[in-house]
Amino acid sequence: MTDLNSCLIAKRNECATRLLALYKQANAGHIGSSLSCLEILVDLCFQRLGKDDMLILSKGHAAGALYTTLDLSGRLLDAKLDTFYKDGTLLAAHPPCSGEIKAIPFGTGSLGHGLSLACGLAFSQRFTGRNFHVYAILSDGDCNEGSTWEAVLFAAHQKLMNLTVIVDLNGIQGIGYTKDVLQLEPITDKWRAFGFAVAVAENGNDFASLALAHDQLRDSAGPRCIIARTVKGNGVSFMQDKVAWHYLPMKDEQYTQALHENSASCS
Questions:
Q1: Entry pTM
Q2: What is the number of structural domains in the chain?
Q3: Which domain holds residue 185?
Q4: pLDDT confidence of 267, banded at 50, 70, 90?
Q5: Which is nearest to 70 in space by CA: 109, 104, 96?
Q6: pLDDT tier at 262, thresholds 50, 70, 90
Q7: CATH code assigned at 86
């Protein structure tokens, strides 16, 4: 294991401990969704995002993962993590619409909107003279929405080389398994047919797999898409691949077990 991989794993485990505490204190759900994209966020925040780059979490229900990763990487300068879910907080259940947090340019969570926002940001580079990259993290549910595919068409037509989409494909959405709600496969063929360069991270919860996918797209002459095949509730055995953990909060004994399993993965 490389030193970089070890460092990213340590950061991931610290973020996981923090987000579990946040969700327990708030007695709130969306824990499974946060854990499925945590490695994607850690990978971006600790080794890919440049000073002027932008990140759009279209699957805004995973806000706990976003907040903890931004905070640990020194980007959450405008709000206090321990105010999560509390009255008057900037850190609500979904990323805020207020624009008061510099690292969160738009409020998200109504699925299907995030990629359009990301495309607008990426396209704006042509008129501002600034040099930056835009990363958008989508969910299975995002890919159910027609507005997502309109944005995909726009990005390909405009050859947005400064746009990378990462689909957190955990196979579950709010009301069931994706294959039962609205089948997306063969999803890689769909993104390619719409004009994106596509790579697959077969284990989207593994930093080496994510790095390989990013490397495969490095020289692409247009917009890029990484299909990251992840596990809902990754790292917590009783949450993994369970539909119920899209919404459920943790009971005390479940929280203790989740912390124990996360701590064990650090050793």
A1: 0.96
A2: 1
A3: 3-266
A4: very low
A5: 104
A6: confident
A7: 3.40.50.970
